[in-house]
Amino acid sequence: MSALLPTYARSGLSFARGEGAFLFTETGERYLDFSSGIAVTALGHAHPQLIEALTEQSQKLWHVSNLHHIAGQERLGERLVEASFADKVFFANSGAEAVEASIKAARRYHFVNGAPERYRLVTFEGAFHGRTLATIAAGGQEKHLEGFGPPVQGFDQVPGFDIDAVAAAIGDETAGVLLEPIMGEGGMREVPWRFLQDLRALCDATGILLVLDEVQSGVGRTGRFYAHEWAGITPDIMASAKGLGGGFPVGACLTTEAVGDAMTPGTHGSTFGGNPLAMAVGNAVLDVVLAPGFLEHVAQMGLRLKQRLASLADEHSDIIAEVRGQGLMVGLRCQVENKTLIAGLRERGMLTVPAGDNVVRLLPPLIVGEDEIDFACTTIDAACAALKSGAS
Asked: Which 3 state secondary structure label does DSSP give 212?
């Protein structure tokens, strides 16, 4: 009997090593990894620059308290600020922690500015913001809330992307609006750019904050550094993680100066957040992602993938109902149970991830090339054909 809590429905596979877009089992079986640890291994497996950065830093200093100056934090923070809307950055270890910090920052901003009653956030049905008590309350999904007592207060959910519904939900206690530009766990549903623009205008008009969860969609995943850039808007607060560490635990809460100034000493903290190892790897990730031409490569590969998938959806319309997403954050809404297609792909050496709304998520590493995309689409084609014929 395993000593581990049975909180995961594991596949039964175990991997010994990885290289680029591929994982290998102990016995040498090769799998094309179009899950990337759920959008985490942004630069693939065993990327030489990440290995070099982590190895070099591990020989110097692993951990030092945040009571002291950490040079790597300053450098990574400055680079994130330079490349984004933000003026200030707080480092954590995970997406959930980054979202928690974002929620606290939104509440604290209003407290400092004389409106302590403003603590509630408008959120959206089908959202996923993490597994802590506050973030499951923000997500509002019953399957995540069940069995954990009364949900944390302070979240008002609205259906769909209806600006009038958001406006109606805003009251005297509203601090801001929290949403993902692309709902990953919620079925790879893209938030329309016009809705994001209207939401920005509504937040400005009502004096509340726009809080974005870019834990999954950020750090180049969609072909822009952060997905909201496609809509030409900026948030007041943003959570980032997953790809930011390329596989090493790194999370960040990014804010404007006005919000950041409200987070004074003692208002928030993290023991491990922003440690020297994490910062060395985070800086190495940015060395690659922010290099000239890299994001253009992601956009080009994303376009190739989506075009190939659109053709497969036409050919296998009884299996694939819709292709969703942006860049290398793509979903297939299925006519059959998504787990059935996922199993068929795994049997053929390809790893994917399930999502809500009966979707299969495709999240290849950002360094993926044409050959891997073509192999993936050939594998999807074969799996769909087998499902139609009744084979495994």
From this structure: strand
